[in-house]
Amino acid sequence: MSKEHARRQSPKLLERERELEAIEVALAGARAGEGRLLYIEAHAGIGKSGLLAAAREQASTTGMDVLAGRGSVLERDHSFGVATQLLEPPLARATEAAREDLLGGAAALARPLFENHAIAAAAPEDQLFSLLHGLYWLTSNLAERRPLLIAADDGHWTDRSSLRFFLYLAQRLRDLPVALLTAARPAEPGASEDLLRQLKSHEATEVLGPRALTRHGVEGVVKARMPRPEAPFVDACAEVTDGNPYLLNELLADAEDRGTEPTAASAELLGQLAPDSVLQAALVRLTRLPSGASAVARAVAVLGEEAGATHAADLAGLDRDEAGAAADALVAAELLRPGEPLAFVHPLLHSAIYADTPASERARAHAAAARMLERDGAAWETVAAHLLGCNPSADAWTVEQLRGAAKRSLAQGAPESAVRYLTRALEEPPPPESRPDVLVELGQAESLAGKAGAIVRLEQALELIDDPRRRADILRDLGWTLQKTGDLRGAVEAFDRGLAELGKVTGTTTGGDAALQVEVASLQNAHLGAAMLEPGYAERAHQQLAGLAEKPAAELSPGERGLVSVAAMHLLFRGEDHERVIALCERAWGAGQLLEEEGSNSPTIYHVFGLLSWADALEASEPVIEATLEAARREGSITTMAICLYGRAWPRYWRGDLAGAMTDAQAAVDAWSGEYSMYLPVAAYWLALSLLERDEVDAAAHAIDFPDAEERWGQTNMYGALLAAQGRVASARGDHGEAVRRHEAAGNSVIGSVVANPAVIPWRSYLSEARLAAGDRDGAREAAEEEVRRARKFGAARPIGIGLRAAGLAEGGARGLELLAEAVEVLRSSPSALELARALIDAGAAVRRDGRPGDAREPLREGLDMAQRLGAVVLERQASDELLASGVRPRRRQASGVDALTPSERRVAEMAAEGMTNREIAQSLFVTVNAVRFHLRNTYVKLEVSSREELGVALGHA
Prior knowledge:
This protein is 68% helix and 3% strand.
């Protein structure tokens, strides 16, 4: 650094005491193992970068590792661009053994971002989730070695994938020794405002808003650069720059270059300037520099942050010596930072020089940069970013580069970036023979990004394509897109059109074309899946599915297994015979053949174990879940693991394993709290129900608190579960009127989704209890009677027992006692221990109220024993109160040993006893290794054991 440049550096941060204190607290918290997130928001030039620099310096001096990165205009379409900036350097510095350890376990999911591996073929949302999970575990592995500071500047220019990573990390930050600091401008054009808003408003976030300097602060800056300034000069500096530190330093630098003295006479000259002209003054300084400096500055502005000196020289049209001298002059003038790579001292200056370059010149420079960088093996996203800045020229090479960039973006779960690349490719325009492909790829990307334009693109592609099989593929994409937008009728019609196209091929094909058969079965599966949810097509879909029910399982193709599961789902939703549903599911599963043929990431498998659980066949559903979960762990499919944990929460809840149900449901909620949120409402439903059984009402309310729930899920069959959970919370709080309203809304949502079966959500039973509590016995009776009628039609024990219990409470009197007794007997044939305990306690309470306390004691004691064993706190209290009222003192609940374990401790202990390592447990439960260690330490103390072997014995005895 030159002496002149050193003299011009700003003094220490002024008037930033509050922000610096918050940074100090955050870093101290991270060193103590409690992660913190600071979001610094301020307009350009206020000093966000200075605060991040202060944080980096303090973290380094206190033994923390520092990971630093920043967004840029040129690279904001690079998927995971800032994330790789942050995490690639420590991997590059690590030894081979250390690198393998850092990328071990679940962190291996992020390898493709750092080792240029091919991304595994997967649904983009699954790939995105896997990459996010891998980056999280890489961060966790780094933090195990030393506490981390992650400092991410210019969040307003940060790519969406990296912002999603920050959100994913924020959700899990509390137990990590990590401080995450990010800085952004408010309301910056082109910024990902939705994701920035989520990050800013996250419960883990502390927002800092540094303000402009006061007059006193301005005086401090002026005095540090210009001795003995006169008051009018300081006043003029404050007025011209409005206290913006960067503009103030630019103003002072220009004054020094002009030889201006800090006097009252000079103040009048400064007063004629405006903030915009302060930046213009920097451009004027540029013109005073030696020949070639302007060309290098413009080359760096086009190349973006961290420009290489060689590339800048080539783009500027200078030889290496000329470019080096020009760069030195730019550093001395405080336009570039010292050293390499070449970068401007502030983003405002970068923007000003870029904007001052004529648009046609910029476009030509971007085109030249793209060719130059591609020739030198630059990353695909860097080349594509420059192509976005070029003018269209019907260049086939440009189209292919952009298509390749879009393909890579989709593989990394970043469809928004793919949309931008392909939109630009379409504007080029592509050669006529490539145009249909570009339209299809753009339509698929827009569909994944949730953009309505996908429908138009796919229809345009259909007009240009004659091949029936290609048309069928496009119509399948069109159908899925229409279904995602809620247009079920349009989706059914699109799938129908696709089947008609394949019909043209099958009519002319001789012999067995296995691939064609799979295509037909896949389209049939999609068509019938949409049709059974659309009232106008549901009956026809049912008729089409009927023939598959009798086909032997061994003769079913993979595509037909999917159709059989759809047939079973249709029967279950309609509330048809549960044994028939079970038989169809067992046909589809084929004793595990389905898992062998399709792998763990198969929607058909999800259908099978979900339908078996709803049909009360838990002994059949649980082995399917466990086999799929084990396969997902082997395959590294994080999404499938989360779906299996969510699916396992249902049978655990019904069996009364509330600790296990809570842990599994919480793991799914944690996994889906980012972008992949299709099943989030129902996972939250099971979490809330489990928490309510343990009398954790506030926690249950928090679990289902989604302010944008109706907007996100209102048109799906997931929304009814969320409304039903909200109704249960309202009942627990004694707000019975609100409970009635929520359950009625849940019913409308469920009915609107063509789900008639109370086995899915027993909302009428919930409604009956809420109405009864609100004083509407007739309404309670009506809802319960309809629930029983529908449950008897389906035939599974659990929904019948639940309905009978609600009907008995609503009916009252002798008939009510009969119904409650019947509920108990029916539930004895079900694996749903929790519902049996509930029915026993309600039946005993009703007998006591009928004046027969002696007869009430036996069911109450049995119900109390079950509630204590299950950890059902609300039922335990109810049974104890009833026994006291019957004249018997209830047995106290065991408060030590296994019963003293929290749900999280119990689940961690079970997995440890099964032989899983701490890291494997943490990765399976979506928690940190430190959290697992903490739970195990507590468990060892409570169970008075000292090893995993003793732990297994203690749990086995329990």
